[in-house]
Design brief:
This protein is an alpha/beta fold. It has helices at about 10-20, 35-45, 65-75, 95-100, 100-130, 150-170, 200-215, 225-235, 240, and strands at about 5, 25-30, 50-55, 80-85, 130-135, 175-180, 220. It has a single domain (about 5-240), classed as NAD(P)-binding Rossmann-like Domain (Rossmann fold, 3-Layer(aba) Sandwich), CATH 3.40.50.720. Helix 1 runs parallel beside helix 2 and helix 5 packs parallel to helix 6.
């Protein structure tokens, strides 16, 4: 029976993942900001075969509240098999360019708050000498592009942090999966002019995540074709990249 912690549990991708794991009879500790929505997710997961579900309300930007959540998690779960972090925002680049306070706040949400939360979680995985940490970053972290470089820089910081954690945890038998989606049809992207053929459903992304966790994959591009797209983007020479409007 897998013991699974999910932070950002009310996101569309997280819900789809819980449904996949619930069918396997997993135990869950769900963390999110919206208590009412989280209770709905918990009821749905219970109905789909979960062994047990506990919930905890947390705004991860409130760093001083992390310790209490982690203590409650430790009291409910003597060990953790999987930690899935699905937390973040999609900032407006134009607003970030004009308002430094917004830029700093968005960077905090998408990088610093996650690093603060991951640090004690990884210490626990290291101490128990097993478990998988799966974190959603983004293909945006692969290269700073004019259209979203604030978001991309936060994700780049997170990716570098995860790479270091992976090397650290490998030595004790634990693992880190860096999940890099692009266009996913979720409430966060609702209203954006997304290119239809390149947009994935949360259910498709969730299946890829569950498979990547089971196989202990290092980096997951989802859907798969984003690996090739980002390979090209990463390798455009800098002198030419300056002319890009990606």
């Amino acid at each position: 029976m897998k013991k699974i912690v999910i932070v950002g549990a009310t996101s569309a991708i997280a819900i789809a993942c819980t449904r996949e794991w619930a069918a396997q009879g997993a135990r869950f500790f769900l963390v999110a900001r919206n208590q009412e929505r989280m209770e709905q997710v918990a009821a749905d997961v219970n109905a789909r075969g979960a062994a047990s579900v506990a919930v905890y309300r947390l705004d991860i930007d409130r760093l001083d509240d992390h310790a209490a959540m982690l203590a409650d998690c430790a009291a409910r779960m003597d060990s953790i098999d999987i930690v899935l972090i699905v937390s973040g925002t999609l900032p407006d680049q134009a607003v970030c360019q004009s308002d430094p306070a917004v830029a700093v706040r968005e960077f905090h949400t998408n990088a610093l708050s996650l690093i603060a939360l991951l640090t004690p979680l990884v210490n626990r995985l290291e101490a128990q000498r097993h478990g998988t940490l799966a974190v959603i970053s983004s293909v945006a972290g692969d290269r700073g592009r004019p259209s979203n470089y604030l978001y991309g820089s936060a994700k780049a910081a997170l990716q570098a942090f995860l790479e270091g954690l992976r090397a650290r945890l490998f030595k004790v038998g634990a693992h880190v999966v860096d999940i890099r989606p692009r266009f996913v049809a979720t409430p966060m992207t609702a209203g954006l002019p997304l290119p239809g053929p390149l947009v994935a459903t949360p259910e498709k992304v969730a299946k890829d995540i569950v498979r990547a966790v089971a196989r202990k994959k290092d980096v997951l591009y989802t859907p798969w074709f984003w690996w090739g797209i980002m390979f090209v983007i990463r390798n455009v020479p800098r002198f030419a990249f300056k002319w890009a409007s990606l």
